[in-house]
Amino acid sequence: MSALETTLQPAAEQKFVRGLGLLDSTMLVAGSMIGSGIFIVSSIIARQVGSPGWLLIVWLVTGLLTLMAALSYGELAAMMPKAGGQYVYLREAFSPLWGFLYGWTLFLVIQTGTIAAVAVGFARYTGVLIPWFSESNYLIAPIRFGGWLSGYAMSLSTAQFLGLAMIALLTFMNTRGLKLGKLVQNIFTTAKTGALIALILLGIIVGLRSGAGAENFKDFWSLRGGLQEVGQGLTAATVFGLFVGICVAQTNSLFSADAWNNITFTAGEVKDPRRNIPLSLAFGTFLVIGLYLLANVAYLAALPFAAIQNAPSDRVASETANVIFPGAGATIMAVAIMISTFGCNNGLILAGARAYYAMARDGLFFRRVGELNKNHVPAWGLIIQGIWAGVLVLPRTVKTDAVGNVTGYGNLYGNLLDYVISAALIFYILTILGLFLLRWKRPDAERPYKAFGYPIVPALYIVGAAVILLVLFVYQTATTWPGLIIVLTGVPIYFLWKFFGTKSET
What we know:
This protein is mainly alpha-helical and 506 residues long. The protein has one domain (3-394): Up-down Bundle (Amino acid/polyamine transporter I), CATH 1.20.1740. It has 20 helices and 4 strands. The protein has helices at residues 3-8, 22-33, 41-49, 52-79, 86-93, 96-129, 158-175, 178-210, 214-218, 239-256, 262-265, 273-302, 305-309, 316-324, 329-361, 379-393, 412-441, 456-475, 477-488, 490-500; strands at residues 138-144, 152-157, 395-400, 406-411. Helix 17 (412-441) packs across helix 19 (477-488).
């Protein structure tokens, strides 16, 4: 019998092993949040809002929203320390349908699409060290579809191949048990946090000595450079355009700070979860948001604002590293981002399968996904997640010129993630609304931790997130309304599983 077959063998008596302490849980929160976004998206945000001051304001808004949400989730996590996390909270606060719609969207795009994106991001930066790994070096050249699918193709580049290999390796490693998964997470989170701290300290020190970014702090709020349109002809050149720009920019910064909720999926494996999950949510998000804000200060100290706005391929961290280590910055940052993305994907892969496990136990996903293997982990959930994430790596979007000639290829998962950012925000709002609803429905339930600043802090999150969501639906219609369609595809699937699925007895 092969190692994989042995790993997959279910055992009805198996239960989750509570092997995640407070440090492990905090590492999972921080490690899942820090991927490649912080090293790239500040360049995009700088074009959207047009000044150093407003760049930091965007990240400050992201930080406040993320911290408010994490502190609010702590109450739900302590109240319901079960595998599945946010899926369970929505199921208990509203109905099984709402829980399923979240879990379905998580599986279809949010978790798997992010895993695909991070895997290809890892491959791209590997290509800086080993040029053979490239999205334009094809093992199987793009095969374009016809008819209404003519805007899409399938390919297998060497970068895609490496991304698939990364997903397969981390999926297999996590089927071997929680101990190995958390070891990888702790090592890589420690390494990438250290690398980010080094970038911040060296960027600020070198920047202060050179004075390269002095103008950024002397003229903090004045708009400059080419401003990116943020919807319907608006730019940050007007007061209202600036407001819209700050809201639209949140799609980049919030996505870079996302996945903090993944620790809730693993609640069945956390020691003393009623204490450690709320604390890890607070510690992990506070750590990462603090580092993100300081990273942007380092960019502003080391680079003129125009260099941030126009960083090649938006790689603002690489430009900062080039200032610190002339000629070697790109290589150093490539290694740092490879470490960061590897650790990020380990956390995403580890946590995601636990959400599908909870769905399967309710009869709302493939039955085998609701079983644990001999290593006390949901191996089939990990494998099905890995297969679908791998599938999402392969499709490409076709870019053409005015006469229909192909000019390049994008990645379908990038479009899908753009579509579901607004949907993910809806689920965050609903979950925190569920906090209020459960206070009313279950006033006597045990709450070892109560949401910080309740009801003001959770209410402020709902208002702030709702304003951003409204702006996105009005001014970014092409990438928001499709997200709702993706969510709604889960409605008929829910009723099919409801009819044919089998709920576990325990």
